[in-house]
């Protein structure tokens, strides 16, 4: 087997269990591996570190799959990992819809699998996982006997691995527009064309957290996408709900979801730019009992973190100016590079500029089917905050 020998001074990240090994952390490579080959990794003094797959085209040279030298990387390995992940989800209360595999958090780097009822959506985001895709599909068929499996590999990150972007059926074709249940509501999921894998499961627990603060409230939601937060607000007893999104297509999908739940009389949507609208409506003196912000990631690059933080501060500052005294701000960030402390500091800075006092109701991460592994920062990516704005 190909051997990868690390530099004498290795990153504490590797020593503490992180599966990524960058090319500049390697002293030498013994052998001539092909992209996706399984290799053994050793410290400079010959101690076994782990086994993983290699890709010399990628900045992440090796992604470790196991620290157990006796463990074989074969189809059985992937079957067992998927079965273990499924057992864990069921144990913590997820069965109908969940993120079945969350990459590094399930010891399967660069693999994402979402489960929607009896349908599964896969993303193999590295060359090494692409090599094992057929074995992964066979394992899913054995464990779940699903009605359908679809790949959403239409993501640019694959090109950094030397892979093409593509999407399509990994099973017999099926209708990719399905309906799922969440918290007593129904939502359309567009597996083929929706964002990411078709639906954002990571906020499913957080959407329940607004239940009490929205009762009898006038609610404004921004960056609504398919209207999940807004429709939950209407379902939980809001007096009125308005959702804004810059995309006409998103507004159409959100409206369709409201109609699916017979909430279209309470919950309406408009195609508008949230940044511009909040600024103007603040000047106009509009006021709401609850304002919800769920923007997309503002950056995926470390060099643009400060710009992202400025964006979060600005959107929350404008939002706070629209909230009645004693009302509530519901705000999120899915920007992986913005750590929780940074996010909270940014919201506090916005409150100071808005001359408002905040009382924290709850501060949470993503749903528990997207587990957080201590020491692997990128598994702790979603920040969800509810504060009373006084």
Could you outline the blueprint of secondary structure elements for this entry?
Blueprint: E1 2-6, H1 12-15, E2 20-22, E3 26-30, E4 38-42, E5 48-54, E6 60-66, H2 75-91, E7 97-102, E8 111-116, E9 119-124, H3 127-131, H4 133-144, E10 148-153, E11 166-169, E12 177-182, E13 185-190, E14 218-222, H5 228-235, E15 240-245, H6 248-260, E16 267-271, H7 274-284, E17 288-293, H8 305-320, E18 323-333, H9 340-354, E19 358-364, E20 383-389
Parallel strand pairs: 1-4, 9-10, 14-15, 14-17, 15-16, 17-18
Antiparallel strand pairs: 1-3, 2-6, 4-5, 5-6, 7-8, 8-9, 10-11, 12-13, 18-20, 19-20
Could you characterize the architecture of this molecule?
With 390 residues, the chain is α/β, with parallel strands linked by helices. Helices cover 26% and strands 31% of the residues. The protein has three domains: 2-66, Roll (Archaeosine Trna-guanine Transglycosylase, Chain: A, domain 4), CATH 2.30.130; 75-176, RNA methyltransferase domain (HRMD) like (Transcription Regulator spoIIAA); 200-389, Rossmann fold. The protein contains nine helices and 20 strands. The strands form four sheets. The protein has a seven-stranded mixed β-sheet with strand order 16-15-14-17-18-20-19, with helices on both faces. The protein starts with a strand and ends with a strand.
